[in-house]
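=== RUN LOG ===
request id: a7f3
mode: sequence -> structure
chains: 1
length: 563
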Amino acid sequence: MYRAFKRAVEHLLKRALEEASYECTSLELEPSEHADITSRVAFTLATKYRKPPKSIADDIVRHIVLTPADRALISEAVAMGPYINFYVSDSFLNATLERIKAGNTADKRDTKIIIEHTSANPDGPLHIGHLRNAIIGDTLARVLKRVGYHVETQYYVNDMGRQVAVAVWGVSRFGLNMEKKGDHAIADAYIAANRMLESDATCQSEVDALMKRYEIGDEAVMKRYESVVQRCLAGIKASLHRLNIRHDIFVFESRFVRSGDVERVIEELKHRGDIKYEGPAIMLRLEGIDKELVIQRTDGTSLYTTRDLAYHMWKSERCDRMIDVFGKDHELVSEQLRKALLLLSVDVLPEFVIFEFVSLPSGSLSTRAGRYISADELMDKIEERAYEEVDKRRSDLSGDKKRAIARIVGIGALRYDMVKVSPEKHMIFDLEEALDIEKKGAPFVQYAHARACSILRVAREHGIAVPESADLSLLRADSEVALIKKLSTFEYVLENAACELKLHPVARYARELAELFNIFYKNCPVLNADEELRAARLVLVECTMRVLHEVLSVLGIEAPEEM
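=== RESULT ===
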């Protein structure tokens, strides 16, 4: 509804500007603490027309005439100094709740977007850095789907890199602990292999030979690779499923070598690009980038970057937009990739969401020698701490029920904290803070949803149903109006997030909605109100419950009915 309100304000303001004989390309509309929407257009016009902004704002407001159609959404327009403030009407408030009751739906868009995220090497388990990538990518896909795009998520499997070759070699040399989760067992072999390679450089020739044999399609070596890669991926998928993340497609980079696509990319770059040869190695100079892009090794084998170019060319033929979620360490790679794709005349160029690294408070979790903290260890720890909190608060529940709630709360806390901070900012994930309901993270939002469910459940137990229709004009207490206005902006927040590829405003919206619902709950009795007011407030509670459920779903977080 807020989008409709904003469009109505735009039309009204444009009419007034024409009537007042002002010309302006931007209306400078933005949300405000002092109004439902504010225009700063008077500041822009002041320079052009050499008049004080306040005088211009007063003049524009004098030319604003609200028609009956305008009044369906706008109650008034007021000049406050140099600002022009607009306020929603009572009918807007009522229409907001009616729309939510009817079910918010987005128009389907004839645009297919491919999002590549996570894409961790299959040489061990996911770690905390991968978690931020995976959660950002999955949440972004959810936002884009919710606003109507056709979205496909892809995991690009680097099955030809040196790390994987070392893992395959290590498994052959040291075997696998079959009692361990597959990705962890492979990490043990990979770590042991690296230690041996460091102490005995002659073994490196065996790894190099393995890489060459895999690239040319040696059947015996391919079977060894497949066994290791699939076992590791099975473990990675299990970790992602714990996070409520599932990819639509896993694309293996080896397919682009075997299909001849990589060789075609290299030949095309030789023909079109500024090429430099250093012996058998081939390097591509890219305009505006100091570092050359190596497109072929001295031994003739392909590189990740060249295979990645072939992958992006393949993707570009299957979508209208493609988005890559990369860590900060891939910033240069993303620039090189885009420039090289321009040389190759690719129609659909990648958009990048670059995120800074995430770390843990010092000493919060112990590491084992030779190991970083895996995602599984972190998830185990946060679910364990969540269980302790649930056990303290809900002694009436069975152990299984407590564990189920702990899983929902723990994973929700992890997902929320990974997107609540703008991706370009480094973040520290503190599991104690993430689980602290007073810190207003995921548990705070989940608790607000559970509270709304509880009110509706108690009403049903007393034979009181949410009415099909109620006198919504009774909902005019300050906390009621503030809550309805916040509900009206949900779709607007999602549209902006989809447009800007930014997720932290969605997390902030969830928190602010929960805060306003708690204020309403404190100030406005629901079940004890008189019958007509109770009916209206039950509608408001149900609408809030629905939107809380939706925003948690968009964030990939489960919405418990009790906590």
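=== NOTES ===
The longest helix spans residues 219-242.
The domain at 2-88 is CATH 3.30.1360.70 (Gyrase A; domain 2).
=== END ===
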